[in-house]
Fold:
Amino acid sequence: MSDVDQMSFEDAMKELESVVGQLERGDVALDESIALYERGAALKARCEAKLKEAEEKVAKITLGEGGEPKGTAPLDG
Structure:
């Protein structure tokens, strides 16, 4: 398991912003750019996974078993 797999969303996002900044400046050697790109791709995947986890938790809290909203008052027609 890589260190990225253990990162919080916030930590992964912060490092991803740094990686993007370094790549945008364009002042790194090609080998380093490739390594940064690969690291950035792993960080992006981690952020996406953490967001999906959060979405699933919110869905469990807000939707019933049949997909209907839970804990909401009926709308007046």
Summary: Residues 33 and 59 are 38 Å apart (CA to CA). DSSP finds two helices and no strands in the chain. The mean pLDDT is 88. The helical segments are 9-25, 30-62.
